[in-house]
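[Meeting: bench + compute handoff]

Bench side (C.D.) handed over the final construct sequence. Compute side (W.E.) agreed to return the predicted structure before the next meeting so the bench team could plan truncations. Sequence as handed over:
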Amino acid sequence: MGTIAENQDAWGHYDWSKGGDEWSHCWGGTESLWWTTLFPRVRRFVPAPRILEIAPGFGRITQYLKGLCDELIVVDLTERCIAACRERFAGESHISYHVNDGRSLDAIADGSIDFVFSYDSLVHAETDVIEAYLAQLGRKLRPDGAGFFHHGNLGSFRDAASGALTVANPHWRAESTAAADVVRYCEVAGLVCLSQELVAWGGDVLNDCFSTFTVRGSVYERSYQRFENPRFMDEAARALELARTYGLDGAIPLRRDPAPRPVARGPASAPRGLFARLRELVSPSS
């Protein structure tokens, strides 16, 4: 993968006619991707009062995050992506938008973010960008703030002597980012890496990583967990079959009932999430 400037050029001129949903086809669509893969991995942290999404693209996941907060801030290095998000979510008064330089969070107030999220974008960011974002998030997150980053891991597959990559890179991943480095960047920033799930994206190499992190001393802090998941795409294949079976792949229109945004209750109670509210609804009254 290239520099920040090359990323800016690539996504500024990309054919966004499908809004990024083409990257969800392995799951049977973006709705299936969100509910089967992403939401289970972040539900401990949402809803949250103020969410920051880094590199939203055309709002593929933004459409779900916006209903899990009182305020959503989206930051992208591509003006075209921010313009598309503004247009797509024009009716949402609780979303603010910022174009950055590919590594700066200067537009975000210190101590203001409860949850930061980035999916399917930072895999193209080299390790210096990941380090820069985490260094700033050490200041931007609230005392119980937390985050989820989907980033690359190809930096773990370099020859010690030559520095050359020892595996193929068919998915245009950043080649310098390694999961172990992200743990170190968190420590330097005053954050704690809670977990890392190393996944094989489109092959048998653990080329990607899902990292969750929090502020040191927060209610979320616990011992570090590491999980190697070489069969991650089996999860996508299963989701695709379910989506096809139950008409969630676009073959049958989804019913859209208007629903108010949930009122975020603050980080201490945020982990209750959707499942807790559902249990309240189905539990017999006393």
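W.E. noted at the follow-up: Residues 127-140 form the longest helix (14 residues). C.D. will use this when planning the next construct.
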